[in-house]
Amino acid sequence: MVDHIAHMASIGYGYSRIDVIYLATDLAVFMGKRKPQEDILSNKWYYSFMKRWPNLTISKPQKLSMQRARCASKETLSNYYKELGTIMTKNNLHEQPHKIFNMDEGLYKLNIAQPQSVTSPRSANVTIIGAGNAIGNAVPPYYVFPGVKFDRALLLDGTPPGSDGQCSKSRWSNSEIFKMYLEKHFLKYVSHDVSGTPLLILFDGHRSHVSLTLQDWAESKNIILFILPPHYSHILQPLDIGCFGPLKACYNREAQLFMRKKSRM
């Protein structure tokens, strides 16, 4: 776990105190040291852990400024491509585009207000996970709905063929949901031999996705999860630029037109 936290910090994903607690709790449950229904580990455990590993860098939660969001560090990009190149060379992936997938997710509001109006931060949202490669292979969408009970017939009505989904209490797809997506949905549509060339998945590593148990599972399936540097999706993630961005713009436009028509009835 210490190595994992240090690695994530080295690529720009610094963990906060609560991130470390959730990460350790997840690992404890996986190892059978803690029951899933038990509360997360305490602050007392956290401070004891930090005393044992004083060199670990823990970040404080902070909002990203517009200036930082717009500025791409040449050093960060250089390190990203250097590490990616090393992985591709080591696993003989340079001439195998069918083994390299981009994966991304988009968040879509269910409660669309009129333009320039204020919306509630608690409004319901749906997350859509998508994946594809450079030769045109696309995995059908996977929907993460708010709530607990997943009514497949109702929630997937009208979606593209092969679509699937699940419900989650969190508005973002967490590590457990992400693993289920990979195991039950993604691999169903991607040809992959566990004993052959590994699959390389490039994705925006929202920290709730990246757990130690997920990494262990991926290794057992000969899958390499390669995380994009934080706040660089607008540069490095083609699905963000060419798929989810335009889709969100079209969705918002159609939803606002629908709301205007509805208000005139």
Automatic annotation (TrEMBL):
**Coiled coil feature spans:** none
- Lineage, top-rank taxon, reads Eukaryota
Domain DDE-1 as annotated: residue spans: 130-256
Query: What's a GO cellular component annotated to this UniProt protein?
Result: nucleus
> Which GO molecular-function terms appear in the entry?
DNA binding
Name the InterPro entries on file. CenT-Element_Derived, DDE_SF_endonuclease_dom, RNaseH_sf
Kindly indicate where the leader peptide sits in this chain: none
Specify the protein name.
DDE-1 domain-containing protein
Q: To which species is this protein native?
A: Mytilus galloprovincialis (Mediterranean mussel)
Source species taxonomy: Eukaryota, Metazoa, Spiralia, Lophotrochozoa, Mollusca
